[in-house]
Fold this protein.
Amino acid sequence: MRLLVARCSATYEGRLSSTLTSAVRLIMVKADGCVALHADVGAYKPLNWMNAPNTLLEQERRWVVTNPKGEKLTIELEEVFEDVSHELDTERGLTLDGVEKELQELLAAHPSHLEQDLVCIQREFRTDLGPVDLLCRDVDGGAVAVEIKRIGEIDGVEQLTRYLERMQRDPLLAPVRGVFAATVIKPQARVLAESRGIACVEVDLGRLRGEDDLTLRLF
């Protein structure tokens, strides 16, 4: 990971346009190419960012980040106070909380509750961006990537989208469908998932734990 502390301004051109006025900010460049600008407030959420895959063009006082969708983030560097790089682990090291872990275990054992005749091939299937929770095959033999969350939000859809982009490059898997599973899926996440062809499944964990009448709602 590369970290820059710099006085900078930025403009974004894409689905919407935005401008950041000059200020001292933290610029993060991650191993997968993601570029994010942070202020000294706001927890983990950046002020602006560009997800991978993208291209970073470094000029003397300007960075230009573009992606295949035609979006562009331009960062004007006025003064650089710190520029350091460190090797960090790229795998997801955080253990799933109890609910997510239990959901993963139960759905791996009973994938047909997500989709009829679905078969789980592997848990924590590795991609070069991290592991997708379940790799499954459907009744026609097609690959299905399943990402599981306690609460389904936009970040989870974005995460699954990145995994799907990588998995589509593997000729042994492509084409790959996505399923986003959670106990509750937020409306914005559902809209985003459906716009990308990702199925959403809301899981009633209490019923999945062992009651005979297991009902999942597929939207």
Summary: Helices lie at 98-109, 154-167, 187-195, 205-208.
